[in-house]
Each structure stands twice: as C-alpha cells, then as structure tokens.
C-alpha cells in the first residue's frame, strides 16, 4: 500500500506579517478549530477533490466547506507549486459565497505569487 501524499498547507502572509486565516482560526472555539483543521487536512490528503468538501469558486480559488453545527465556515485557498495556500476564511451568512470574499482571496493570491517571484 502506498502512503498517502499530502500537499502542504501554508498560511498566506501579508507584507506586514499578518496571517489572516491563522488569526481567524485562533479566534474560534476549540471544537470549531478542530473541525476546520480536520477538513483542511482531509483536502491536503485527497486533493484534488470536489463537493461536498470542496467547491471551485473562480479561477484558481477554491473553498473548503466546513459545517459547524448551525453555522457554515469557509476557508478559501489556491493550490500553487503543489502547496495549498490558505487565503481567506469566514463564517458564511448567505447561501452564496460573496463576491467580495472571492476578491479578497484573489488579491491575496496575486500578492503571494508576486512575492514568490522576488
């Protein structure tokens, strides 16, 4: 049996050193953090996968879908250079992921890519 190959997950870091997804996770309760962490790990081992755990949003941006009891969490990510870059996260309040959330993730991905080429 071949061992599972895991793609590494890394947190997007802004020029000022902030890691918005890590900071968002730290603000959640332990059970919520654990659920989201398990969902991210599942994606790391199973990538590429689709619904219900993952959904494609636009271009290179995907979302990890986590159910937290009566709330829904999303972690937006992209896979670049065989790494899962965690770009943006939020508790979902509407049926559809807001365009503004996708824009935040796209902007952060562009910054991350630009930073890699320096």
Can you describe what's shown?
The protein is α+β, with helices and mostly antiparallel strands and 118 residues long. It has one domain (9-116): RelE-like (YaeB-like fold, 2-Layer Sandwich), CATH 3.30.2310. Helices cover 36% and strands 31% of the residues. It has a 5-stranded mixed β-sheet with strand order 1-5-4-3-2. The longest helix is centred in the last third of the chain and has 18 residues, at 99-116. It is globular and about 40 Å long.
CATH class: Alpha Beta
How many helix segments?
3
Structural class per helix/strand content?
A: alpha+beta
Based on CA atoms alone, the radius of gyration comes out at 14 Å
What does the secondary structure layout of this molecule look like, with pairings?
Blueprint: E1 9-11, H1 20-27, H2 30-46, E2 54-58, E3 61-68, E4 71-80, E5 83-92, H3 99-116
Parallel strand pairs: 1-5
Antiparallel strand pairs: 2-3, 3-4, 4-5
Q: Care to give the gist of this entry?
A:
This protein is an alpha+beta fold and 118 residues long.
What features would you highlight for this structure?
36% helix, globular, five-stranded mixed beta sheet, 118 residues, YaeB-like fold, alpha+beta, 5 strands, 31% strand
